[in-house]
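Hi,

I'm pasting everything inline rather than attaching a file, because the server keeps stripping attachments. The sequence lines come first, and each chain or strand is labelled.
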Amino acid sequence: MNSAQPTYYIHTFGCQSNKSDSERIAGDYQARGFTEASDWRNCDELVVNTCAIRQSAEDRAKGFLHNVLLYYKTADKPKPKIIFTGCMTHHGQKRLAEMLPIIDQILPINEVGFNNAAIRKDGKHAWIPISTGCNSFCTYCIVPYSRGREQSRPLEEIIKEVEDLVAKGYEEITLLGMNVNSWGLEKLGIGFRKLMMENKDFGREDLPDNQTQYLKPKTTPPFVKLLQAISAYEQIKVIRFLTSNPWDFHDELIEEIGRNKKIDRYIHLPIQSGSNAVLYRMNRGYTKERYLEVVNKLRKIDPEIVIGTDIIVGFADETEEEFQETVELAKQIDWKVGFVAMYSPRPGTASWRIYPDTIPHKEKKRRWLILDEIINRKNLSVRPKVV
Ligand code: SF4
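And the predicted assembly:
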């Protein structure tokens, strides 16, 4: 499209981090004099921000690009420049060029950065990324490969963004990171990536545990200090954060949640499995007992606190007994929201290399239905706001 002002359109798949990245990509376009097109059929540049958490997520992005291709085969106008970003960029330039030749340019997601001002559509609630990448290596997860090593955004930058939002009248903030609890912690990053990159044969026992990736804080954890600094702005009424991990959900954070009522009473705390054997295969770095300890402390400090979770069913050889442990835990904990996923091995990850994907899709679906029924169906009327 050759309008006086060039136009862009961003099609976003996946999680809040992707949506937040898209806001910053939009900021970059607008800083360069582009305006947003109302539709992908009428733009000069089309950004496809992808998710790779499961094969179905990748298939959706491929399906979308297939529709774009079909449309421009018959449309009487030139195809826009297609820029591909998000977690599917982990496939690399060569593979993506073979898989999706329609793509003109790849924008690695770790290059989106924090520098561009976000273009937000909501005038009351804002996502603020506080870190990017991940230093943990859960064996099933593609994020450490697609988004790279964890980097904490400097405090001054975050506070500057909060002040800009306050000046514009924003009242609710969601802090985003793959592991918000480790924001500002000193990273140790013990040789996992090297092991993977050198393509060595390894087993689960060779992998460093997730909780060894950070130096334990000796005083108040930096993330708690960040929550306190943001809460000091009177106009900010609600603070949420995503995602937390049980292995560094420190007591100081629980105490802060107890006394700071600006922090939302909904806490999202992924468990992934209620079986310690499965958690070990996933390299989650905690046990179900540790998870329960965090939940009990949160509920003791404030009985109003509501907890939600993420669960993967059918992970690498998950036996019926292991699955039943998750079922029992679901009954015991009474999560109000559960994002239940059927395991989908992601090429290049540790679990894809180490464990065969033995559970048939039909069985994964059966397990999914059971947990969805226990956690979500009965809670439809009391589901908290999850942004
Ligand atoms: S903490 Fe684990 S599941 Fe979360 S992004 Fe990092 S590796 Fe993936």
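The first helix runs from residue 16 to 31.

If the labels don't parse on your end, tell me and I'll reformat.
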